Amino acid sequence: MKLLTNLLFLFSVLALSGCAHQISLNPDTENLKVTERKSTSVVGYYISEDNIKKQVKTPGGGGDKVSYKPYKDTEAALYTVLSNKFDNVYRLESLTDSEFLKNKNIKYIFVPTITTNSSSDSVFTWPPTEFTFTLNCKTLDSEGNVAWKSEVNGVGKAEFDEFKNDFSLSAKRATEEAFNGLVAELDKSNL
Prior knowledge:
- The chain has 191 residues and is of the alpha/beta class.
- It has helices at residues 2-17, 49-53, 70-85, 98-103, 160-163, 169-188, and strands spanning 20-22, 39-46, 56-59, 65-68, 86-92, 106-119, 130-141, 146-157.
- Strands 5-2-6-7-8 form a five-stranded mixed beta sheet. It has a three-stranded mixed beta sheet with strand order 1-4-3, with no helix packed on it.
């Protein structure tokens, strides 16, 4: 009887603690809008190594959590959006390599900051039914001054019938909406 009680206790602790399921935030870059106004400028973007490795956990359904790497997962989307707007785009290893910036004639450096959250109205399935993605993009000029900044948001929703073949669907919808918002903001900018 004591063994059965201990097993029930262990099962209830494990059931209540939930676990983190891996999802991906990367949207289909084919679904990203193309800018209306192309710029002849050469730009770079900088994502620190710590941010590339950063693992985030947010709520899923059924008491579980989801885990993902927001910067690594969405770097291709950022590159695509910038490539569609500017003549050439470089990934920067450092913000202080003035020699590289000068040699490549980089006019602006984009530095993204990403904030995410998720939730689910399901107690039976773990994938999030709603995902929010906020992208703050600070743009520095060649002197290191802020030349432009923008905040765009994306909200993605997915129900069981939709996400049963893609557990990351709400997250992908949110990131796609946010990066399409960045395209619109860049079109309005003077960059």
